[in-house]
Specification:
- It is an enzyme of class 5 (isomerase).
- This is DNA helicase RecQ.
- With about 525 residues, this protein is of the alpha/beta class.
- The radius of gyration is 26 Å and the shape is elongated.
- The strands form four sheets. A seven-stranded parallel sheet has the order 3-4-2-5-6-1-7, with helices on both faces. Strands 8-13-12-9-11-10 form a six-stranded parallel sheet, sandwiched between helices. The protein has a two-stranded antiparallel ribbon with strand order 14-17.
- Helices cover about 40% and strands about 15% of the residues.
- It binds adenosine-5'-diphosphate and zinc ion.
- Zinc ion binds next to helix 17 and helix 18.
Amino acid sequence: MSESALQILSRVFGYERFRGEQAEIIGHLVSGGDALVLMPTGGGKSLCYQIPALMRSGVGVVVSPLIALMQDQVDALRQLGVRAAFLNSSLTQGQARGVERAMLDADLDLVYVAPERLLTERFLALLERIEIALFAIDEAHCVSQWGHDFRPEYIQLGLLQERWPGVPRIALTATADTPTRNEILTRLRLDRARRFVSSFDRPNIRYRIVEKSNPRQQLLAFLKGEHSQDAGIVYCLSRRRVEETAAFLQGQGFTALPYHAGLPAETRRQHQARFLREEGLVMVATIAFGMGIDKPDVRFVAHLDLPKSLESYYQETGRAGRDGLPADAWMAYGLADVVMLRRIIDESEADERFKRVERHKLDGMLGYCETTECRRQVMLHYFGERLDAPCGNCDTCLDPVETWDGTLAARQALSCIYRTGQRFGSAYLVDVLLGKDLERIRRFGHDRISTFGIGRDLSADRWRSVYRQLVAAGLVEVDMEGHGALRLTERCRPLLRGETSIQLRRDPDRRKARVSGASR
Ligand code: ADP
Ligand code: ZN
């Protein structure tokens, strides 16, 4: 009698029970069905095709775009006694021939292959000659032209459906926004695939954002107040900031280590090993740190700089609280972050289409930062999921944001941009609104325009908050040609013409916030 999925789970992988929908997915594939699996990173996607490949006769063909991960997966499988191999450009021709021979001899359960290799006529011809258990297409979002992992070869994978209509196919990804999902289904011709969508919610993570004023001190207050003994990760955008922040935390008595791609490989390896092994260590890192880090008791992830998309933010904060115990995702953010990220996008070598996508993703991130609603609802909505009630475990739920009628203020802020020629950043604009007596303002003659001093009844913090929200709402854009100057967009017209009104969030005033213990 053949072994059941559960028996294989236990005998081969050493686990007692399936997680989430793994059992259903495996059952569906074993009986010949196609599947689209959306599951967050770390959710357990691999078993969804590995076990069916062991249960069906023939070899399971896994398409994977990442050479390094392929190798890791195959090593891990071999240690478990599974007959697995990979085919990619890192192999010598002799090694590749050996794998092909094993396939022909039906000596393999799983073969991992890079998409460009799979699509060669030579490899397709080889596949015609053997029995195939299933096709698994990992990182299936690479088929999406709108994502930043777009791989042109993925588009051609639709041919698997034509050439092997009887072989079950499973596409897997952790990127689940609705457009990407639909693109996967169409391009890979998975019309009849059953969809398995896991929740992306991480209910034990508490999401919080503070307005960036003095990021280091804010971080310090957060760590001292809530995580003085805990392991955690602090993400910064630049290598220099990583070094400085790590040194600063060390000076404050924390065991903190830097991690970024500019450090020697050996140093990085050591720091990573210490983070995994020791308790209460703070890793200050760029996004170079984290891939494949499986440390269950990371109690916080702090961001000193804005991530470039909600996908990145979700991935990075998702490293907290893997053990299911309460964990914090904390971020300090300000308009300067937006200017910086826009500059990085605009100055990159990428083509215009790609830059448009990146800007769009950044807008999604801003929307999350400036929301007055439950952050978890905004985030899950972005991933195509719905959370019916506010979560009760994010800052906007715990400390509901007050809103105010910002129509007049927004109009004044917009008109200040216009009257100063759309050539200045928010710091200068705020000075003009407050009617500051500054040489620079006089030199430009901006002490004589109608918006000079028009905003004295609001604080500088409040005005900065107005500008941030106008950028997040797309009424104002950051002009990189103009070195971060703010510029009006078409979308601000109705407001300027008095046809619409706008509600703004009332960010806590910085001075008051500090007095009341960072507003918590
Ligand atoms: P993903 O590909 O979705 O990021 P993986 O397949 O790499 O996730 O699985 C993440 C981790 O969870 C791995 O260490 C894996 O062995 C473990 N895992 C997966 N399924 C189970 C299960 N049913 N029980 C226990 N651990 C599991
Ligand atoms: Zn909430």
